[in-house]
Structures are given as C-alpha cells and as structure tokens.
C-alpha cells in the first residue's frame, strides 16, 4: 500500500528520494543539527552587533538632533558615522553572521554587517523613536492610536 501511495503522489523519483533519506537517516540528522547550531550562533552574533550599533546610532542621533533641532530624517541618517571596524572587532564573537530566519550565513565583515543592519530603514526609524529621538516635523503631528480609533468606530455603529 505504501509503495502504491509513493508512486502515485511522488512518482518514481520521489519514491527513490524517500528511500534514500530513509536509508541514510542517521547521517543526515547530525549534519542538519550541526548546521542549525551554526546558524543560531551566527544569528546571535549579528544580534549582538546590531544591539551595539543601534545604541551608537541613538547616541549620535541625540547629539546631532540636539545641535540642529530642525533636521530631517535623511540628513540625520547621513550625519551618523559608525566605526564599523571597531564595532565588529569589539563585539563579534564568531566569524559569521546570519539574519534571524535566514538559511545562509555571511562573513562578518564591514560591508555585510553594515548592509544587513542598515537595510531596514523602518527598523532604524523605530529604534530612534523608541529611544526618544523625535524630529521637529514629527513633533507637530498628533500621534493617533489607530487601534483605539477603529474600536470606537465599531462601537458607535
């Protein structure tokens, strides 16, 4: 019955792949577990570097915003200069980095770390906002609670 099911749903090639995995199962599992541990360590390495980089971004942003309160977001980000070499040398404990849900690793060098951390502009913006760095153009706007507004619209109907 199982051979009929394998042939019907997976075809002959799928049947051979399943039998191959079944035959060499004890060789695959340790390799997969070792690679998972490797990815976890690389991801923790990136998180550690990213935490220190975000603290440095916030520190410099507060200094720049204090000197020039009318600055916009693009000029603020341009004014921030991080010493990536020192940051990587000081806080990296593993030679590779990996994003949180990635299946591939990169070497922990300046280009890879900088592009990975600074790729998500929204994350940098929220980090600045979370640490109390509000720009002049944002202070004029009233902050709205969209969830509360939606809830009130439902109740009124």
Characterize this entry briefly:
Helix content is 72%, strand content 3%.
Give a structural overview.
With 157 residues, the chain is mainly alpha-helical. The chain has one domain. The chain has helices at residues 2-9, 11-23, 25-67, 73-79, 84-91, 110-118, 121-130, 136-139, 146-156, and strands at 96-97, 106-107. Strands 1-2 form a two-stranded antiparallel ribbon. It is flat. The N and C termini lie far apart (58 Å).
Descriptors:
157 residues; mainly alpha; 9 helices; 72% helix
Task: Enumerate how many helices there are, as a single number.
Answer: 9
Please state the structural category: mainly alpha
Give the integer mean of the pLDDT values. 86
Radius of gyration (CA) equals: 25 Å
Number of E-state strands: 2
Major beta sheet summary: 2 strands, antiparallel
Q: Total domains, how many?
A: 1
Distance between the termini: 58 Å
What is the N-to-C order of secondary-structure elements (H for helix, E for strand)?
A: HHHHHEEHHHH
């Amino acid at each position: 019955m199982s051979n009929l099911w394998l042939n019907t749903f997976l075809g002959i090639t799928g049947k051979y792949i399943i039998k191959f995995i079944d035959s060499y199962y004890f060789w695959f599992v340790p390799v997969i577990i070792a690679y998972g541990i490797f990815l976890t360590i690389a991801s923790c390495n990136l998180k550690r570097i990213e935490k220190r980089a975000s603290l440095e971004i916030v520190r410099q942003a507060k200094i720049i915003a204090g000197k020039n309160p009318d600055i916009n977001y693009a000029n603020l980000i341009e004014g921030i200069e991080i010493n990536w070499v020192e940051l990587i040398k000081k806080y990296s404990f593993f030679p590779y980095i990996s994003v949180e849900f990635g299946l591939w690793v990169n070497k922990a060098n300046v280009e890879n770390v900088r592009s990975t951390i600074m790729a998500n502009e929204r994350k940098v913006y929220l980090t600045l906002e979370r640490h109390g760095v509000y720009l002049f153009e944002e202070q004029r706007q009233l902050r709205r609670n969209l969830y509360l507004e939606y809830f009130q619209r439902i109740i009124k109907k």
